């Protein structure tokens, strides 16, 4: 499994630092591109009962991306529900959900092998994914705004309101 690298340090110790994720499409996804704007990180899996949330995640990304909102889908096999290769994940998501949101390579999201982003979120907020399709909203100030479990749909009012509130602060 690949691990992203820290690209910059936090301004204050309570902020989430900027991280890079290796992109499933090649290159990297740098969270610094959303400095001052909110972004959502979601741990995903292609063979999960919640996999259909990919469609709503794409709609959420499409709805707010022009306002500067960012998103990273992070495929993970931590719950034994992801394909064996990044090529299979990429193909599945493109063919079944027409995904063009940023997506990392398959990474660990829990425990000592977790990507540094997830370790930082756990250190700041105590939150670690308990299943696939957990959602972490980072505010424009680098703070964890809120976290939601698998049962919270990507277009749920509480999630979209939190995104809209954050976007309104950055205008």
Give an overview in words.
This protein is of the alpha+beta class and 171 residues long. The chain has one domain (6-169): Glutaredoxin, CATH 3.40.30.10. It is built from four helices and seven strands, in the order E-E-E-E-H-E-H-H-E-E-H. The protein has helices at 53-64, 86-97, 116-125, 157-169, and strands at 6-8, 18-22, 28-30, 39-44, 70-75, 135-138, 144-148. A four-stranded mixed beta sheet has the order 5-4-6-7, with helices on both faces. Strands 1-2-3 form a three-stranded antiparallel beta sheet, with no helix packed on it. The longest helix has 13 residues, at 157-169. It is globular and about 40 Å long. Mean pLDDT is 91; it is low at 1-13.
**Coarse structural class:** alpha+beta
Whole-number radius of gyration?
15 Å
What sequence of helices (H) and strands (E) makes up the elements?
EEEEHEHHEEH
**What's the N-to-C terminus distance?**
38 Å
Oligomerization state: single chain
Largest sheet, if any?
Answer: 4 strands, mixed
Low-confidence stretches: 1-13
Q: What is the number of helices?
A: 4
The gross shape turns out to be globular
Assigned CATH class:
Alpha Beta
- On the 0-100 scale, what is the average pLDDT? 91
Q: How are strands sequenced across the largest beta sheet?
A: 5-4-6-7
> Architecture, CATH level 2?
3-Layer(aba) Sandwich
